[in-house]
Amino acid sequence: RKEVEQDPGPFNVPEGATVAFNCTYSNSASQSFFWYRQDCRKEPKLLMSVYSSGNEDGRFTAQLNRASQYISLLIRDSKLSDSATYLCVVNGDDKIIFGKGTRLHILP
Amino acid sequence: EPEVTQTPSHQVTQMGQEVILRCVPISNHLYFYWYRQILGQKVEFLVSFYNNEISEKSEIFDDQFSVERPDGSNFTLKIRSTKLEDSAMYFCASSEAYRGRAIGETQYFGPGTRLLVL
What span, in angstroms and rounded, lies between the C-alpha atoms of B20 and B33? Predict the structure, then answer.
């Protein structure tokens, strides 16, 4: 099993729709989790941290399921500007691991 | 809003040459990192640095690589003898705190240096 695994997509979603993607991780001792977004040829930018109780920031909701070892990201009312690659980041005991990312295209 | 800066934005070098990539982390941050991203691939951790020494490094960070904080603001990555496979985008990042300390461990990335080795 890969350390951090994401569906590469692309997810092609009409503007205004809701989209969700998951990320699975293999190390049960992982301590903290993040979603970053990365635009083409740009640096990763923090979207949100993922807390055990789940957290919401505007249209974005992140969830953590430690038992099944996955995190999720839900985007509601998607905008054209949400088009990007979404990177799952998992911090373990001795490693900081990025997923390969999920590409999202919002269609007008 | 404070940000991480990196220079140069692009660097082209000949195989076997030494390159130094420079970063200025956010001023009150204590932890610094280098990552690389080969075109079309995932972001890979290279090294973390705290209190003037390496905290952790990945298997990618071999003897060809070194990091330094030569003064109070700059953080550099040196590649001694570049290889073709070193061609990538190199990102510097910084954070207030380290992993496992949820508050302040968020890493802020610089815009990257695109390195091309010919």
Answer: 15
